[in-house]
Fold:
Amino acid sequence: MTVKFNNRDPVYVQVIRHFKEKIAKGYFEPGQEIPSRRELANQLKINPNTAQRAYKEMGEQGLIFTEGNMPSCITKDEAVLKSVREELIIEAVDLFLGSIKSIDVPLSEVLELVKKKHDAESGEAEESK
Amino acid sequence: MIEVKNVNKKYGRKQVLKDISFTAEKGEITCLIGINGVGKTTIMKAIMALTPINSGEILMDGEKITKESFEKITFIPDTITMLPQMKINEAFAFMADFYKSWNPQRAEELLQFFKLDPNERIANLSKGNTAKVNMLLGLSLDVDYLLMDEPFSGIDIFSREQIAEVFTSHLIEERGVIITTHEISDIEHLIDKAVLMDEGAVLREFSVEEVRENEGKSVVDVMREVYRA
Structure:
């Protein structure tokens, strides 16, 4: 697990995002155990205090849960998991719309291009398998 | 917590520390940043009572530093202080004689981690490996506070990465660490607090995550603002 962090966003926010992406991709399954705070710090090469902060925040957002002295786990709450995926998709779409807006191009043309590109890329991915 | 309060120091007529104040918490990594010659090493020496100060006060957990403090705080200078003809395991024996807080299990663990041979003479080690032995000797003391002077300077990228890894591990956890550096980029994600210095004075002291959160700035962004102002 390696993550390229940028220097301007809080590292704990970037760690949470990293977890959300993994949840959305299905890499983390509901109820799956996650690394301890210390293991995470070591894997991601971050300060253990930052790992702690990320876990605390994720606990508050309901993304992970901890029972007593047990290791923390990914939530089993379907609604939360679904909202993570939606949140990431909407964020990506917003970003895309933002950058496309400045070029002033009709939506139909853009959608056509998106579809073409997407098909070509998934085709490549199929072949490489 | 280590508190440095209004410390002034002169070498002859030259004032090298000008009303320096900052704190370093236990369980956090505090980084003194500044170009060469701004007084970073002098502050560390002042904390360790290796050099006298003209005025001001330095406290560790609310108390003045005495000779008993050296079982609770240690200084890793930028060059190794062991005799070059010593073998690594002889240096271990020396440390064990000198410090009650020497932890032989931890020293062994670090030898493995750094992949060092205990029968090697210090004089025959490469620069990177000498730096690792130097680090190892300090980290193997069960102290609450560690001061490290330029642990990353002049060594290759892989050794730097290995040393940086120490900062994310249990070897550092719960302890208070003060490190100095003039190149922040390697450790930007590792530190809790930055203290920017110039010409013997503290220009700014800040929590790095707070600045990222509230101002969207990296440590280097803040440095640019402070030093180019």
Observations:
- Helices of chain B lie at 40-47, 88-98, 104-114, 127-139, 157-166, 208-215, 219-228.
- Chain B touches chain A at residues 27-29, 164-165, 167-170, 172-173, 188-192, 209, 212-213, 216-221 (CB under 8 Å).
- DSSP finds seven helices and ten strands in chain B.
